[in-house]
Amino acid sequence: MDRMPRWADLILVPLISILLAGLISGVVILAIGENPLRALGIMVSGAVGSTYAWGYTLYYATNFIFTGLAVAVAMHARLFNIGAEGQATWGGLGIALVALYLPWPHWTLAMLGSAVAAALFGAAWAAIPALLQARRGSHIVITTIMFNFIAAALLNWLLVGPLKPAGTMETATAPFPPATHIPSFRDMFSFGETILFRSTPANIAFFVAVAACVAVWWLIWRTRLGYEIRAFGHSEGAARYAGIDATRIIMVTMLISGGLAGLMAVNNTLGYSERLILNAVEGAGFIGIAVALMGRAHPFGVFLASILFGILYQGGGELQFALGIPREMILVIQALVILFTGALDNMVRMPVEMIFAERRRARAPIAAPGPARSSPGHMTPPSDPGKPAE
Amino acid sequence: MPDPVPAIELRGISKAFGPVQANKDISLRVMPGTIHGIIGENGAGKSTLMSILYGFYRADRGEILINGRPTAIPDSQAAIRAGIGMVFQHFKLVENFTVLENVILGVEDGPLLRPSLAKARAELKALAEEYELEVDPDAIIEDIGVGLQQRVEILKALYRKADILILDEPTGVLTPAEADHLFRILRNLQAQGKTIILITHKLREIMEITDRVSVMRRGEMVAHFRTAETSPPELAEAMVGRKVLLEVDKTPARPGAPVLEVENLRVVDAKGVERLRGISFRLHAGEILGIAGVAGNGQSELLEVLGGTMKATGSVRLKGQALDISGNALGRARRDSGIAHVPEDRQTRGLILDFAAWENVALGYHHRPAYGSGTRLDLAAMQADARDKMQRFDVRPPDPFLAAKSFSGGNQQKIVVAREIESAPDLLLIGQPTRGVDIGAIEFIHKQIVSLRDRGCAILLVSVELDEILSLSDRIAVMFDGRIMGEREAARTDARELGLLMAGVADTAAGRAA
Amino acid sequence: MTKLSTFLGAAASVALMAGAALAEGPAVIFDLGGKFDKSFNESAYNGAQRWAEETGQSYAEFELTAEAQREQAIRRFAEQGYSPIIMVGFMSATPLSQIAPEYPETKFVIVDAVVDAPNVRSVVFNEHEGSYLVGMLAAMASESGTVGFIGGMDIPLIRKFACGYAQGVKAVNPDATIIANFTGTTPAAWNDPARGSELTLAQIGQGADVVYAAAGGTGVGVLQTAADNDILSIGVDSNQNYLHPGEVLTSMVKRVDNAVYEAMAAGADVETGVVVMGVANDGVGYALDEHNASLITEEMKAAVDAAAAQIASGELVVHDYMTDETCPALTF
């Protein structure tokens, strides 16, 4: 009934895209005089070949899961939240404030309190653009991107003045007290003499991210609110007809989106740096857009895409260590993957669809003259997974 | 009798979109100087065929002969060179250009506009006189009515020296009077030797104006007739593939207590234009009130206000209780108070095309306990409910997991109608219930509406199809320019009288004419 | 898939073995701006290259692209046996202070920050002193009595530049007006010549006729726009006088290259502790060459050199913003 099976849509097409990107990257690496196969080996083993590698890959992936989910949730309501960067910045601010200024008896409570603060701060930063969109029709793409700059400026001011410990050059807060230190993977998975994930930044926030994936999936496909968000995203007119309040959906969706982006700070600020650093988000908010597009706004897709981007980040670093490939070249490789999986998605998708259509026609020679179906553009949220195929 | 060379001959045209065979081995001969009707249900492949003829699509197989010569038509420029002109259902005019500018658009004689405009002005004048096609060449398109805009489209084609004119559903947006005028123009064109292809789904128009008619069904050309030798039932049967009942079978209404009382309803749109100018009427239980009128005279706004998605002033009472009409996000409140609404546009309002059928069956009712508890949706319940409703309303295929966009127009509409009727409303608002719906489904939907009436529901029917209004309604109100021009008992009026009201001829004058 | 992963696994182990041999020699970790940032990273790179060319030896290097790589890169080089491991940028101070004790045999060098550990050499510059000198020159060259300062981001380090500059200006002309602007709030601010150009035009509009750029790559736009509008500019970090001969008044040179070169030359035996590079030991200063000789008069040179001598002898103390995070000559 669909143009192609779901597994092809979610797995096969991205896989072919990655292979194509890999092929071109290989040519690039060849052109700068390195062996592409060796480079691939270094990248893969450096990103997934050991607990050390995973400790970095999953750390990066955790950041991207949060921002990717943030963008994906908004995408379901056809809201293009480009502000995950600023919202995650604010999430970090929320964590810094509660971690530094509230006394925490135990890390579990500190983590809970920090997560709530991060989500609230992120949501608050998304609330203003959302309100402007809902009430005034100010385009959310413009307002959220402007709010990224405002958030950066605000944090800059705070980290040069009020929040900076006197006498240091570093644009960062004081280190958080030990009671707020949440377990790293090393703390969690090392037993006795066996130390795993040594000196890696991955921490318990990864499991928060996984839980967030499940929660978002539940929200979008199993709740009335999710239904309304999707209805609003697919057809504003139909949603209004169905009695769905546009203002409420825009507000609620953006609050959830901003909250998810804010939660990223549990990973990078509370979990890893244990202090708030200027520019702590480092573009993860924007990577979140690529991740959400590549994951077709589905939490599972976002999870996979985040892992892939984590691999690209960590593997790219390893390439630089091992081969001294300049970082600009690594950026080119990462960009190629984004280009193929995001922007050129249809270039792969259409031939694959054709192949599946041909195969189906071969099986059923008398085609029913049903109405032509349009292929979903890749801003279109995915169809429901509650089909029996699931 | 040896026929002359056909103006257009299609031989074995086939066209597939992916797995969908839109045109299958189509052959057609259109004789010069005739008006040739092509009739078929929505999705039968008429528009695809014409798009191939006009160079928008390329046929997978088959050939096109123009005046006996095989002709390749790779794009619309080639079609124009071959003497083919096309008047689309949705006009392709630049709204803020003048008539003259639109006419020369794309065929300017050179980089300088002035000489082209002067030449076009003279030629337009000649054409207008010749074919009764008067239009003010300096009028801005967005300021003139749809009837005139259509004339501009025809002028555009003639200015490009078209000998063969294709009109796609040309009367959909016209008043009966405007349609009559259009038909006069077409006869004039025919008299001057032009060949005309008229695509329509209205049997009446075919019978009235064409010389010959070809019937399409499911991508195939299934029959050709000389119009004089066929009848509407025969054409309908050819279109649908089985015998169909063209008349609605219904007993006289037994109206009960008033359900809906509308007083002095007014709507001003965002541009400050008054769309409803004081509408008042009453609707009783067990009664169908038809709202007739040409599209764009306030019927849509009336439905939106009653459906809770548009602000208005005035008063609306449902079973004696005043309804809040001060907001545009009251759809849910309306449903909870017992109003069901089949919107005019099922594609952008009534359905979410990317949603599966089962999700659409809950649309607007998704907050009800039947579909889950608390914040959670009970997917199994929703799916079972959809399967049940789809079966009872004969939705084909009865697969609740299929996306709404995969159903034909008629089956899409059945999903909407099933959802709204099954909510057991006190009042059903139903707009264009059979627009783009095939004849078989029309029959079914009409039966459902009548049976709902017989169960005591009040029904407000809005349709631009006068035939539909006449055959379904118990009472008929005609809207023109935001007002109700008059009300008639359905049994005591006819298309001519309603047509005058639709054209804005005041009630008294129409009364005299009747 | 199975075959592919087996193959990848094999390739990976080959790669690991290749990297397993214990390395020797120095390693350099460049900060997030990258080694071609037209600023202090590039200066460090030039120092490293000078050492490599003179000795014919090679060094390992890594350009950070993420905060999480600071620790990763320091540890990686330490574990592979590099020494000294040189890093530029104050943001590495905290990670280094945690890691340095883990590798007591390894020597670390950090530029622009102080890390208190027995195996760390901390090189800091008295940017305020050098800025003071170019501030004096600016005030003497200015006819309007208004001079400009364009920083990259508003961070303590750049405030240190600005504060020293302002003191120098005020020392010559107590009535002078100093306009200070910062390019942005994200790291992009260090590499935004267009924005630098805009700010320069704005400062010209406010009457500035000498503009000091302490903004990395952004400064290229400042110097260009100043030259286009026939006002004077002051370069930073390396000698930028040559960029627009006769239109760049001078440059505040900060010899990060020397700091890196010296550390590399000393090798694994590099002396640890805090090294302050100031006017006294030519760590900072103003640049005078054939490109700006016509702009610096004898009186100007005499005045500045006198001040430099006083600073070197301790007779004149330029206030360092970092000591109390205030500035007597400028409010932020």
From TrEMBL, chain A:
Query: Compositionally biased, Low complexity: which spans?
Result: 366-377
Q: Which domain of life is it from?
A: Bacteria
Q: Which UniProt keywords apply?
A: Cell membrane, Membrane, Transmembrane, Transmembrane helix
- Gene Ontology CC: one annotated term: plasma membrane
Pfam families per the UniProt record, alphabetical:
BPD_transp_2
Chain spans, region Disordered: 366-390
Stretches that traverse the bilayer: 12-33, 53-75, 87-104, 110-128, 140-160, 204-221, 249-270, 276-295, 302-323, 329-348
Q: Which GO terms describe its molecular function?
A: transmembrane transporter activity
Query: Which InterPro entries does this UniProt record tie to the protein?
Result: ABC_transp_permease
State its location(s): Cell membrane
The topology of this chain with respect to the membrane is: Multi-pass membrane protein
Protein's name in the database = Nucleoside ABC transporter membrane protein
Query: What is the protein's species of origin?
Result: Rubellimicrobium thermophilum DSM 16684
Classification from the root reads: Bacteria, Pseudomonadati, Pseudomonadota, Alphaproteobacteria, Rhodobacterales
TrEMBL record, chain B:
Broadest EC class assigned to this enzyme: hydrolase
Gene Ontology cellular component list: plasma membrane
Q: Which SUPFAM superfamilies match?
A: P-loop containing nucleoside triphosphate hydrolases (SSF52540)
Q: Where is the signal peptide?
A: none
The main location class comes to: membrane
Q: Which residues form the ABC transporter domain?
A: 8-243, 260-506
Q: Which cellular compartments is it found in?
A: Cell membrane
**Cross-referenced InterPro entries, in alphabetical order?**
AAA+_ATPase, ABC_carbohydrate_import_ATPase, ABC_transporter-like_ATP-bd, ABC_transporter-like_CS, P-loop_NTPase
Keywords in alphabetical order: ATP-binding, Cell membrane, Hydrolase, Membrane, Nucleotide-binding, Repeat, Sugar transport, Translocase, Transport
- Name one matching Pfam family: ABC_tran
Repeat: present as a keyword of the record? Answer: yes
The record gives the membrane topology as: Peripheral membrane protein
Q: Which GO terms describe its molecular function?
A: ATP binding; ATP hydrolysis activity
Question: Which CDD domains does this UniProt record tie to the protein?
Answer: ABC_Carb_Monos_I (cd03216), ABC_Carb_Monos_II (cd03215)
Task: Give the enzyme's EC designation.
Answer: 3.6.3.17
Q: Which domain of life is it from?
A: Bacteria
Q: What family does the entry list?
A: Belongs to the ABC transporter superfamily.
Q: Which PANTHER family match?
A: CARBOHYDRATE TRANSPORT ATP-BINDING PROTEIN MG119-RELATED, GUANOSINE IMPORT ATP-BINDING PROTEIN NUPO
Protein name (Swiss-Prot/TrEMBL)? Nucleoside ABC transporter ATP-binding protein
Automatic annotation (TrEMBL), chain C:
Domain spans labelled ABC transporter substrate-binding protein PnrA-like: 29-306
Transmembrane helix among keywords:
no
Q: Which range is the signal sequence, renumbered to this chain? A: 1-23
* Cellular compartment(s): Cell membrane
* TM regions (residue ranges): none
Q: Which domain of life is it from?
A: Bacteria
What Pfam families does this protein's entry cite? Bmp
- Database matches in CDD domains: PBP1_PrnA-like
Q: Which InterPro entries match?
A: BMP_lipoprotein (IPR050957), Peripla_BP_I (IPR028082), PnrA-like (IPR003760)
Q: Which GO terms describe its cellular component?
A: plasma membrane
Membrane topology label: Lipid-anchor
Predominant place of localization: membrane
UniProt keywords (A-Z) are:
Cell membrane, Lipoprotein, Membrane, Signal
The family line of this record is:
Belongs to the BMP lipoprotein family.
Q: Which PANTHER family match?
A: ABC TRANSPORTER GUANOSINE-BINDING PROTEIN NUPN, TRANSCRIPTIONAL ACTIVATOR PROTEIN MED
Q: What is this protein called?
A: Nucleoside-binding protein
Q: Which organism is it from?
A: Rubellimicrobium thermophilum DSM 16684
